[in-house]
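Lecture 7, part B: from sequences to assemblies.

Below are the input chains for today's worked example.
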Amino acid sequence: MTVLTRRAAAMLVMAVCTVYFLTPLWWLFVGATKPGGRGVGLWFDHFQLGSNLHAVLTYQDGIFLRWLANSIAYTVGAAAIGTLLAAMCGYALAKYRFPGRETLFNIVLGGVLVPATALALPLFLLFSQAHAANTFWAVFLPSLVNPFGVYLARIYATSSVPDELLEAARIDGAGEVRSFFTLSVRLMAPALVTIFLFHFVAVWNNFLLPLIMLGNQKLFPVTLGLYTWNSQVDQRPELRGLVLVGACLSLAPMLIAFLSLQRFWRSGLGAGSLK
Amino acid sequence: MRRTLAVLLLSTLSITACSSNSSSSSAGGSSTTAAASCAPASGPVTLTFTSWVPDIQKVVDIWNQANPNIQVKVQTGPNGNGGTYQNFFNQLKAGNAPDLGQIEYDALPSFRVQDGLTDLGSCSEVTAAKDQFVDWTWNQVSFGEQGHVYAIPQDAGPMAMFYRKDLFEKNGIKVPTTWQEYADAAVKVKAAGGYITNFSTGDPNQFAGFAWQAGAHWFTNDGTNWTVNLTDPASSKVAAYWQDLIDKKLVSAVPPWTDEWNNAYNTSKDWTWVSAVWGANTISSGAPKTSGKWAVAPMPQWTAGEQAAGDWGGSSTAVFKGSKHPYEAAKFALWLNTSSEALTALNKAAALYPAAKAGTSLPALSEGVPFYGNQKIYDVFAAASAQVKPDFTWGPTMTQTYADAGDGFKAAASGTGTLLKALTDAQASTIKTLQSQSIPVKG
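Predicted structure of the full complex, as structure tokens:
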């Protein structure tokens, strides 16, 4: 009996949390199926998701698809390269002894404390000096680095890549670069997926940097594009609906990334927490 | 002959300025010379123009096709207060501001105070265009300074009263022409189960329009000093009037631009809205169930027989400091805001209501509107635009003033303060902000 009640209580807490987290998403989805963004309510009326999607994808010659593609380019590109950089950096800090190692690590850790928003304006002034503001690179280059990823990579490399194994590789004649890519990267794979996902989310949600850097609509990521539409609602009331549908659509890439990498991610987080 | 020589000399200067844009400070220096002269460039010119008008590209395309030597590149972003103004300030600091930018009237003084605008007063085409614009809009861009022009007026938001014709008729209530009648009608509307209007909490812009109509002067600038007076007799009168309606619970008080707000109109709970010309689309999209039942009448007056209106919104096209081609930029801005092809396109793209006098007779603005029972509503706004008081000036820190007044208004609407107190507090904080930015202000 007590087991049952305890179970029921746990289930109740879970159910409440689920409702709490999923209600806004449900609201967004329902809102996206209604005509003209009449977002009131949590149930469907006048279901017309198809024509809403069509309206979003064709508005201003399909600029929304372009934004989605931009977001994916910024995010996947930066997360992939950023993960590689973080892995190499963390690995080097974990496996090589050199003077100033801890100082270097502490400086990188300090970088975790500096919010990306605080760097946006200085970055803008720097890129302006280089005549590179309002270009793809102005958003892409600053997104490559991720101090938290370096931290994770170091912790994970310390615990999951045995020194003996590296020793053996060296004796067998593998160079440092080769043993990193063929051996260590595989051992660190779960951590790398975690870093990739963290980085992916951070870049996807980075809004202030593109807002400050970009004036060319064709370079906007989807977040900035939707924000721009939303701010034009008083001139174009139909944009209200498009913003809802667009926001709903823009969740898709994140969902895909999470669902396809979820398996690795769980094992990654779990392994990290034990050490 | 001498003039040709001068022009030649100047154009060489501006070419040198173009080719040697290594450091931002030197570019800024030489452009000041060009700005003072407003001389045409000798060769083809490319301008950048930042605007958040939806589909502005289509309007600019018309110009680009007809002017191969002055090509305009469009940049866009969120609306001014949504980030574009801050971007302008950043870009001015970095030396890569666009040649032209969209700036609302209430934000122009902040750019003027920061010395971010090119004075177009020396462009004879610009000064000659003065009479093409409704008087008060010209005052907004010249700040009343003779011989100086800091932007070209684009659109305007003259105010009038949207009201539910059917409900007023059905209940035998007279459509108010004065604010006294409006308050009397409010009692009858309440008795009939509705609210005469919604007092927009948290959004002092509508109130500013009311105060403007009543003859308020929130800000004045005597050339060196600013004076802040949010509680002058006219503003106090307007504040007391609305406070009375709020106290008697004759108006609803939901936040503007929300579903709640739309719903209040869509379900016939609120019966009137004294708002700007662009409000016509706000109602028709927010309250589709009430189609055909609305009409538009002039704003209620403080004295019977008077003809005064306020303004709510409107923007201009400014040329930024540092633009190397103010002559071409001004030429484009004039075309954009006076030619009938551009005004028609702007109206079609974003329902902009032109600041140019000729714009009020555009075909699109002379037709009956089905949502308003086929009334030719834009005739009412054309009359209102000419009746907007010409001498209202915005302050240089309006974002802060709005925010502080808005907080106070929210408190007043929920019964924990008064509108007058909100204005008094906003005035004090505005003076403090001006002082902290070293803007000379009379205490």
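Note for the exam: The domain at 73-274 of chain A is CATH 1.10.3720.10 (MetI-like fold). Keep this in mind when comparing with the next example.
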